[in-house]
Design goal:
The chain has five helices and five strands; from the N terminus they run E-H-E-H-E-H-E-H-E-H. By secondary structure, the chain is of the alpha/beta class. The chain has a single domain, classed as Response regulator (Rossmann fold, 3-Layer(aba) Sandwich). The protein has a five-stranded parallel β-sheet with strand order 2-1-3-4-5, sandwiched between helices.
Length: 142
């Protein structure tokens, strides 16, 4: 059986992030809620996460800015953006920066679980491909 993805929830709304963490926990997915981009960076530097659920509108730093920073330093983490405010421009920017998915809040927990699992599978496949490339005989670093 495949391990569950480790999820970091980043949202400035305390009730939303704690409720979502509990709902994911009930489904066997370990999830840590934090309230800001700064707290997310600290957590990502302290522990390994597979998927980040990131709110777009937060004080101090937007989710789009946070996404760009996360992808610079934690390339293998998949980021799913959650927002209550739909915007085609934002969705395009999120995909350009390497975001995995863009979902509107509130979203169905089962739909979110499917997106988390899909993002995790993508992360695992990328890591496996990189391992194979590093181990191939024609690779100068092997």
């Amino acid at each position: 059986m495949q391990a569950q993805p480790k999820v970091l929830i980043v949202d400035d709304e305390d009730r939303f992030r704690t409720t979502l963490a509990k709902l994911l926990g009930l489904r066997g997915v370990p999830a840590k809620p934090v309230g800001s981009a700064a707290a997310a960076f600290e957590e990502l530097n302290a522990a390994a996460y597979d998927v980040v659920l990131l709110d777009v509108r937060m004080p101090e730093m937007s989710g789009i800015e946070a996404l760009a920073e996360i992808k610079k330093t934690h390339k293998n983490v998949e980021v799913i953006i959650l927002t209550g405010h739909a915007s085609v421009d934002a969705a395009v920017e999120i995909m350009r920066l390497g975001g995995y998915e863009y979902l509107l809040k509130p979203c169905d927990v089962e739909d979110l679980m499917a997106k988390i699992e899909s993002a995790y599978e993508r992360k695992l496949a990328r890591e496996e491909r990189l391992r194979k490339e590093a181990a191939s005989p024609g690779n100068p670093s092997s």
